[in-house]
Specification:
Elements (H helix, E strand, L loop, with lengths): L4 H7 L2 H27 L8 H29 L7 H25 L4 H38 L3
Helix pairs in contact: 2-3, 2-5, 3-4, 4-5
Length: about 150
């Protein structure tokens, strides 16, 4: 899920950036599924709490990298959305602020007991999945808008 600033600048393709964001969302969904499955496994004992903490931390770090990527890439990805690019960008920034607050709370929960950590993971995972769905719908809408504009010779 590592993408350098240079590759973003070199690509300069809104469609490539949109595809990369969706691909990163796929990776994040996989990490969410693995982490929640580990948290929900009734066979897991209190002694495996360290493993759950490591897995959760990996998820949180992946989301942090993804948010940084989006903040670098979104101005490029949304530049072709006539009349809506700034609005979509502002919505993404607001979403990132909320994600950062949830990340801080989730990271703080890493120090708690198993039950509290599991509850925090569930809340975090649910919110993250909803956020990604909204982002993808927004990016798809932006992509359709660009196609419509391009199709009319614009």
């Amino acid at each position: 899920m590592e993408t350098s600033e240079e590759s973003i600048e070199e690509a300069k393709s809104p469609s490539w950036i949109r595809e990369e964001i969706v691909a990163q969302h796929g990776v994040l969904r996989g990490l969410v599924a693995e982490t929640v499955a580990l948290a929900d496994d009734p066979e897991r004992s209190q002694q495996e709490l360290a493993t759950l903490r490591v897995r959760a931390k990996k998820l949180y770090e992946a989301l942090s990298r993804h948010v940084r990527f989006e903040e670098q890439a979104l101005p490029v990805a949304l530049r072709d959305v006539i009349g809506w690019g700034a609005v979509l960008h502002a919505q993404m920034e607001e979403g990132h602020q909320k994600q950062r607050a949830r990340l801080a709370a989730a990271r703080a929960a890493l120090r708690l007991g198993r039950d509290e950590l599991v509850a925090s993971l569930h809340s975090f995972a649910t919110a993250l999945l909803v956020d990604m769905e909204k982002e993808e719908l927004g990016l798809l809408w932006a992509d359709l808008d660009a196609i419509t504009v391009d199709g009319k010779g614009g």
